[in-house]
Amino acid sequence: MSYIQLEQEGYVGxxxxxxxxxxxxxxxxxxxxxxxxxxNLDTDAIRVLIITGAGDKSFVAGAxxxxxxxxxxxxxxxFGRLGxxxxxxxxxxxxxxxxxxxxxxxxxxxxxxxxxxIRICAENAVFGQPEVGLGITPGFGGTQRLARxxxxxxxxxxxxxxxxxxxxxxxxxxxxxxxxxxxxxxxxAKKLAAAIADAAPIAVRASKKAINEGLxxxxxxxxxxxxxxxxxxxxSEDQRAGMKAFLSKEKHPPYQNx
Length: 258
Ligand code: DAK
Hints:
single chain, alpha/beta, 2-enoyl-CoA Hydratase, Chain A, domain 1, Lyase 2-enoyl-coa Hydratase, Chain  A, domain 2, 2 domains, six-stranded mixed sheet, four-stranded mixed sheet, globular, binds 4-(N,N-dimethylamino)cinnamoyl-COA
């Protein structure tokens, strides 16, 4: 892989978009590699994935404008499908994904971050959907996920004006959960990932699925989705071990993902 690096530290995977000369902009090679890494990710060995960008200036500065500039209608559709497929794979990955946003998260970069379960960022992070300024609409989920994550009114303001916002504003509107000095960002992401990896993986995965699916469902259906997720945990050894430890007033043993 030239543009996507994957490292593993214990149960935590760290995926780095590595094209720093173009501020990690997403061309079709980057997107294809991203899709391939996600397809082959061992989600038993890796319990939490962190996504970040190479360097200290940019998470992902968007889709590659140079590549997009010459696309035909058909090629544009194909490029859009590729990105949407890859981002959807991030969103429905069975394990939680944390975006550690270490700089520019513009256009496709903000859309990649929004496909993740949790976003934290560095103080120098900048978020935005600049597409209408380039004569296009957001195309990797920006018209959909942003309005679901922050208020529809604020999402519309960001999309219609193409104006960027800085980390404190992203925190205020709930686009990110926390802001850290740049040097502390990865440490904070790993700490958060470790806390998730310490919990029972089957329960964490079932929770992710229930939250994601439930958000798309009417409440009467969603609570049934939740009931099924809850029930599925009772087939796991980890549920028995976790509850036994609680009743014995002990810390739970390392969960086995069984
Ligand atoms: N694409 C290609 N190259 C980029 C890039 C990008 N998005 N962003 C930066 N680069 C490149 C620059 O061209 C420059 O390359 P060289 O000139 O050195 O060869 C290098 O990265 C460093 O950038 P700058 O010299 O510009 O660095 P500055 O610090 O001065 O400025 C910046 C940083 C992030 C403010 C600036 O680079 C910038 O404004 N970049 C573009 C940000 C942007 O507009 N992003 C949104 C892209 S549009 C769709 C599917 C997808 C999409 C839409 C529709 N459909 C299916 C419908 C997605 C659209 C987008 O993401």
